[in-house]
Amino acid sequence: xxxxxxxxxxxxxxxxxxxxxxxxxxxxxxxxxxxxxxxxxxxxxxxxxxxxxxxxxxxxxxxxxxxxxxxxxxxxxxxxxxxxxxxxxxxxxxxxxxxxxxxxxxxxxxxxxxxxxxxxxxxxxxxx
Length: 128
Known about the structure:
By secondary structure, the chain is mainly alpha-helical. It has helices at 9-18, 22-38, 48-57, 64-83, 92-99, 105-124.
């Protein structure tokens, strides 16, 4: 199982800005992999590597495939929260809106991921 990590939401955002988006691509891939680790039976899970490839080369499909993958990722996060025993608090509309506010959607997604990691580790009896 992929090691579940708690990351600083603000740190993810700052590293993405400082690296001109490179860290954001790495982070998206790691987040998708973490979602699969928590909820492997979800058929809507997005592969981390395919997510990054489509983010880089989405212009080929006029960004239709990256948009579809974005909504699949958001649905996977909700399903992951349910699989972790949480009430789903992730809101796709908020995450999408935050995309247009200097990429602060990364902070929101990471904060939601941290809730899942805490719940999974608490269920396993591992300190978070």
